[in-house]
Design goal:
Mean pLDDT: 94
Helix content: 40-55%
């Protein structure tokens, strides 16, 4: 028996990771207690995804367990022990706006939950590969001090700058405002690295930007593209914060991200760090994203603009994925932003129209 444990298994990345590795013949154990609904309200509930996984994936077992509960988590790991070959940790409090409302819960979920999982892996399945879905917020607002040039629809970096192809892992995480969410993810990120380097475990941090796809339960505080498309379909007002609507994000489809997990799983390394996003292949500004959504949905987006940007928010973020591609040259992106948005629309429009 070969077991994969997936935390946050009803979320966007978690649910698609469940299906991916179940399809490869692994027995998949999911850990998810539905806290996304607690963070962001009923519209962000992932219960529909959880229930679908339980119906449709025969080699999936679900545990409604909080990752901060050491005894319950340890019990799951002890049950499967050395049969565990892979742990993919996607569970998190993912919003820097929400973190400021409840810093203790944010930190305990993101940092304490991560060390509970790392220690359970070390005790019961030390040979397993441990993948952590980290965030580009570990770099704080340092990207906002890059030399940016204003263009008609976006901010762009000076083409002569060393980061013209994207931001690499060598950017410092010090002397910057991270947001409280960023700080809790830094703590988790460093722990994952340390368990790799200190204990020789196969651990990796995948520092994502905007992770997206059709299973995303997008909401105002988290899930940029999915929520934007949902607003376009339902007529819900979307609020844009600052930067003249020209802020840039790279966006990676969850399928492309999970294929990168698999590449690492096949040839794991100790204590690795990878910036993982859409890179130059898949990115857009807010203006550009709205244009894509309006064309796909066939209607104008109802939006308002607030001049004040969110604290710590990036003006421009594009990941440099060269380090990962150097280690795993067989991997490449398959989805760009228009393809991502079209799939989100196609798979969710009927469900959204029922609630419009």
């Amino acid at each position: 028996m070969s077991v994969a444990i997936i935390t946050g298994s009803a979320g966007l990345v978690g649910s698609e990771t469940v299906r991916y590795f179940a399809d490869k013949g692994m027995d998949v154990v999911g850990i998810d207690n539905g806290m996304r609904k607690e963070f962001f309200g009923e519209e962000a509930s992932t219960a529909w995804v959880r229930d679908r996984l339980k119906r449709e994936v025969p080699n999936y077992v679900h545990h409604d367990v909080d990752i901060r509960h050491e005894t319950e988590v340890s019990s799951i790991f002890e049950r499967y022990a050395k049969s565990i070959k892979l742990v993919v940790h996607t569970a998190a409090q993912p919003s820097h706006d929400w973190a400021a409302r409840n810093p203790i819960m944010d930190f305990t979920v993101n940092a304490n939950g991560t060390i509970v999982l790392l220690e359970a892996t070390r005790r019961f399945a030390p040979e397993a590969t441990f993948i952590f879905v980290s965030t580009n917020k570990v770099y704080g607002d340092t990207p906002n001090y890059l030399p940016l040039v204003e263009q008609e629809t976006r901010w762009e970096i000076d083409p002569a700058h060393p980061y013209a192809n994207g931001i690499p892992e060598t950017m410092s995480i010090d002397h910057t405002m991270h947001s409280l969410f960023g700080a809790s993810k830094v703590a988790a990120d460093v722990l994952v690295q340390e368990y790799g380097r200190y204990f020789g475990m196969h651990t990796a941090c995948f520092r994502g930007g905007c992770l997206t796809g059709p299973n995303h339960s997008g909401t105002q505080l988290h899930g940029f593209l999915a929520y934007l498309m949902k607003c376009a379909v339902t007529g819900t007002q979307y609020t844009i914060f600052g930067y003249k609507r020209k802020q840039v994000r790279d966006n990676i489809h969850s399928h492309d991200l999970i294929r990168s997990f698999d590449a690492y799983f096949q040839k794991p390394r100790c204590g690795e760090v990878y910036n993982m996003g859409g890179g130059r292949f898949s990115n857009c500004s807010m203006i550009e994203a709205i244009d894509f959504c309006e064309k796909i949905a066939g209607r104008a987006l109802n939006w308002e603009y607030v001049e004040q940007a969110r604290r710590g928010d990036h003006i421009w973020w594009i990941s440099d994925v060269a380090r990962f591609q150097q280690h795993y040259p067989e991997w490449k992106h398959e989805y760009d932003v228009p393809a991502i948005l079209q799939e989100i629309y196609d798979m969710n429009r009927e469900r959204w129209r029922k609630i419009a």
